[in-house]
Amino acid sequence: MKTLIRDAQVVFPDGIRQSAILLEDGRIVSIDAPDSSRADEIIDATGLHLLPGVIDDQVHFREPGLTHKEDLLTATRACAKGGVTSFLEMPNTKPTTTSVAALHDKLALAASKCIVNYGFYIGATPGNLEELKCAKRTPGIKIFIGSSTGDLLVDDQQALERIFAETSLPICAHCEDESTVRANAAAIGGGQDYADHSRVRDNRAAIIATRRAVDLAERHRHRFHVLHVSTAEEVEFLRGTSNLITAEACPHHLFFSVDDYPRLGSLIQMNPSIKSLADTQAVWQGLLDGTLEVVATDHAPHTLEEKRQPYPKSPSGLPAVENSLALMLNQVALGRCTLSQVVSWMCEAPARVWSLKNKGAIRVGYDADLVLVDLKRSETIFNENQLTKSGWSPWHGTTLTGWPVRTLVHGTTVFQSGRVIDGPTGREIEYDRP
Ligand code: DOR
Questions:
Q1: Of 8, 199, 311, 332, which is most buried with the most CB atoms under 10 A?
Q2: Mutate to test the pocket of ligand 1, among 316, 388, 389, 390 (most ligand atoms within 8 A of CB)
């Protein structure tokens, strides 16, 4: 099957220019293909930009075990709509992905359900070192240095030292210091309202844990990725770290601050918590100056019924995969960043950080995971239109300019004219590691 995408403004790693891209059997086979190229399908992309598909390296898709919130089909339908062609999913499902057997079970489940490409982290526990050493079909190891949804906390220093010393896969971590969080909670009597969440999980909790994790990685010379940076202190600290360390920002830490609690309440209750306006500005600055390389969502759906419980019973997490690209394209429309920066943060950098084979750029030989976007299209996000099973968005009522209009996974169209085309089109992601 050959597909020719004609007259698109194509975002290449070295710039944006008009080109025609020829796809064959799921790969990009030619750039600047002649108009006379023979193809089974011709896509006229006049007026549109062609981007590599988004790679979201931090999502919680809830299957197995928590499928009343989300499952691999509903989540990947949302991905297709949002221009996300590959995802890396976290291990806090039920059962947890903390053994090679559980990892392989998840991969088998994904093969029959996922519309987009998939990879799954293996989670660390205080006692599963041998599993972490044997796992191969995974981007890396996830450590919760600080508890969040689920019970995957590894706080013991000796256990952490051994994970960093004895494993070879890259590691990423949720960094919020457990003893600081507990002391803060005790000091305010557990907390009364949603805004207290940011007092319990404060800036100190984040920077203490991030320093601790980076110290482990630097001493053991281990590749390490800091997930969801939320504070000015962390951004400042990360400016001085070695090239073993990479870091990322999430849309909720870029677009929400504690000032939004009165309007949104538990809808923006997240771990790490939402911080001050000054912190959001520092996280933006970290992205713009290259200190933070990746933008990923931390898509973490809970039902509205669960979210409406009073604090602290209300769970932390919000859904975002179907809006993340549009949220960032809207920033391009506002002049805050460039389209090439968005592609760097959401496509190129996650592929580089996790050594994803043949992904993250429009290059000959790379997978034909692509998204056509209309930078002029304005649309409003409504809960009723969301494809995530959780059925809501914290951006309900927000109008954004710049939207995905067609998504291709391995050359197959999975989203077009507002509709997702169901089918197990996703494939297991491969890793380019020694
Ligand atoms: O707010 C969060 N929710 N942060 C996490 O780290 C986990 C996530 C979830 O799985 O609900």
A1: 8
A2: 316
